[in-house]
Amino acid sequence: MWVVYRTSGEEQEKAIEDTPEMLKVMEEDGLGRDNKFFGGGNIGIVDIAFGQIAQWLGVIEEVVGVKMLEAHKFPRLHAWIKNFKEAPVIKENLPDSDEMLVSFKRRREKSLPPSSQD
Fold first, then answer.
1. What does each of the 118 residues of the chain score in pLDDT, given as a tens digit?
2. Residue 40 gets which letter from DSSP?
3. Cβ-contact 84, 37 below 8 angstroms
4. Is 117 domain-assigned?
5. Residue 41 lies in a domain
6. N or C: which end of the chain has fewer CB within 10 A?
C-alpha cells in the first residue's frame, strides 16, 4: 500500500494491481473464517502489526483516489478493521483521519514530481 502512495504512473498501477492479492492473503490465511482478530477473539501482536491498514489504508486510498479495500471483496478484513478500530485501547490512540489526510496529501505533493501528481 505504501508503494501506491509513494509512486505514480506504471509503478503505481502495478502496486494497485498487486494490493488485492496481499489483502486476500491477509484475509484468507491470516484471519481465517471465524476470527474476530488475527489471533482469535482478542487483539494480539499480529493485529498491532497490521494495525496501520485499519487507519492508514483509507487515508491513502483517499489521497491517491483509488479504492483497494472494498467491503464486498474482503468482508472479513473489512470486519476486522471495524472490530480493531472499535477496541477501546485502539480507538483512544488512533490518529485523527482528517489530520492524517492533510498531512499525507502534503507529503505526497512534496515527494512526487509536479507532472506525476494526481
1. 788 988 989 999 999 999 999 999 999 888 877 889 998 889 999 999 998 888 889 999 999 999 999 999 999 999 999 999 999 999 999 999 999 999 999 999 888 877 655 5
2. B
3. yes
4. no
5. yes
6. C
Question: Between the CA of residue 118 and those of 9, 23, 65, 114, what are the distances in Å?
Answer: 10, 24, 8, 9
| Model pTM above 0.70 | yes
Residue 2 CA to residue 108 CA, distance in Å, equals 11
Give the C-alpha separation, 68 to 54, whole Å.
13
For residue 43, the domain's CATH number is 1.20.1050.10
Rg from Cα positions in the chain: 15
Is residue 32 a part of any domain in this protein? yes
